[in-house]
Amino acid sequence: MIRYVASDGPAYATFHPSVPECGVLHLTVYDRSGKPFGGLYFGTSSQMKAIGDWSLDYYLIGESPKTP
Questions:
Q1: Does residue 31 sit within a domain?
Q2: Which pTM was predicted?
Q3: Given a cut of 80, is residue 46 above it in pLDDT?
Q4: What is the DSSP string of the chain?
């Protein structure tokens, strides 16, 4: 996990992640209280189809995601 805390205003960062385990690369955005409110998943078309049934409700209810 990489943690980046942005200050007020525009912020720029470059990350060079590696994924040492099976899964897909994702970025979750948290508010100041630590609750998730959005995110992005990255991968090939087949990887995205494989996770197409995953629930993203945790963004709506503000809880940490459960491992599928």
A1: yes
A2: 0.56
A3: yes
A4: -------SS-----------SSS-EEEEEE-TTS-EEEEEEE--HHHHHHTTT---HHHHHT-PPPP-
